[in-house]
Amino acid sequence: MGCAGSTQSQGDGSVKKIRKPKPWKHTQPITKAELMKLREEFWDTAPHYGGRKEIWDALRAAAEADISLAQAIVDSAGVIVQNTDLTVCYDERGAKYELPKYVLSEPTNFVEEN
Hints:
By secondary structure, the protein is mainly alpha-helical. The chain has a domain at 32-101: Up-down Bundle (Bacteriocin As-48, Chain A). The chain is 32% helix and 7% strand. The protein is built from three helices and three strands; from the N terminus they run αααβββ. A three-stranded antiparallel β-sheet has the order 1-2-3, with no helix packed on it. A hairpin with a 5-residue loop joins strand 2 and strand 3. The model is unreliable at 1-13 (pLDDT under 50).
C-alpha cells in the first residue's frame, strides 16, 4: 500500500524512467578539459549541498553511466526521480538533489583545445 502520491503507487505502478538531457549550450564555448574541471568541482562539493553521501555517489555513478545502467543505479539506491533527465531527484527521506546539466551531458558548443 503506499501513499497515493508516492512514486511506486501512481495507479499503473509506473516509475519515471530516466532519459538523456536535452541538448544544451554552455554560456561560452568550452573545452573538454574545462568541462571535466567543472564536473570534478561539482562532485567534490556536492555533499556540502545537503543530502546523503551515498546518494551523491549513486547519482555520480548514474550520471557517468549509460542510460540502462543509470536506471538500475537510481532504482537500487532508492532515488526518486523528479525530472527524467536527473536534474532534480530526492532520496527516500525527502532530501533534494539538484544536478547541473554539465555533469549529465556534453554541451553543443565544444571547442578544440590548443
